[in-house]
Amino acid sequence: MRNLRELVIAGAIVIMAGSSAMAFPTGQINIPSTDAKGLKEVTLGINNYATFSSDPNAGVNAYGIGVTTGVLPFEKVKLEVGTDYTPHSQNPLNFNAKLAVPEGAFINGMPALAIGGFALDSTDGAPNIMYALAAKTLPTVGRLSIGGYTGDKDVLLNANGKKDNSGVIASWDRTISEVSDKLWLSVDYMSGRNGFGGLGMGGAWAFTSQIAVLLGATVYNEMDTGGKPTFTTQVIINLP
To answer: Could you tell me the pTM of the whole model?
Structure first.
């Protein structure tokens, strides 16, 4: 289960929300997860996003490439950093970072914890979203995660132009071992009508220990800021 989760770069799955860009932390569909890369683990993500509508106001079709790697030599405390390039975006080069502690690392039964940021950029127009997250894996049910986020109040706006720069993030994910240990599913939610907020759902199939493909869809909370629903395909490559 752990190997499959490390293959999936979720939050990674919405590189764009309207005209925004999101860096690729290890995650679920739209939001980061409490997973993080270990030292010298490197993942390359090649991502494509398309709207389900040809309406001119549906939002942009997009593509991008990102790299994420771990930089700490510890099992109980991990730090990953990454960057992605999305040529369609106002801020084409973005960065992310995450400090994470796995479940049960220091106390038996403790949840996994993570703090980090994504869509980080020093230029004007960058969302610069920071988040904190906790997760617990339950027998049969799978992993449940919940946390919160905040971002640039001048960038994360609703359709009326008012700030909408903080909210809740939550998700469920599980390896569907009843079918195959190679199959992973997830549903996540990010509140807010700021272009990033929405409901995401999808799944990944690990063809090998190095290569997985993820298919997903996102319905945004506000069409005027996020656009109409999008479909995404992701190729995730763990470099040896």
So the answer is: 0.85
Q: Using CA atoms, how far apart are residues 89 and 85, in angstroms rounded to an integer?
A: 9
Residue 195, by phi and psi: left (phi above 0), alpha (psi -120 to 50) or beta?
Answer: left
CB 198 within 8 A of CB 221: yes
Give yes or no for a contact between 44 and 237, defined as CB atoms under 8 angstroms apart. yes
- Report the distance separating Cα 172 and Cα 168, nearest Å: 14
Domain coordinates of the chain in residue numbers?
Answer: 2-234
- Phi/psi at 199 (nearest 5 deg)? -105, 125
pLDDT tens, position by position, 79-131:
999 998 888 777 788 999 999 999 999 999 999 999 999 999 988 889 999 99
Handedness of CA 98, 130, 228, 50 (dihedral sign): negative
- In this structure, are residues 232 and 47 in contact, taking their beta carbons and an 8 Å threshold? yes
CATH assignment of 2-234? 2.40.160.40
What stretch of H or E contains 237?
A: strand 230-239
Give the residue ranges of DSSP H helices in 64-222. none
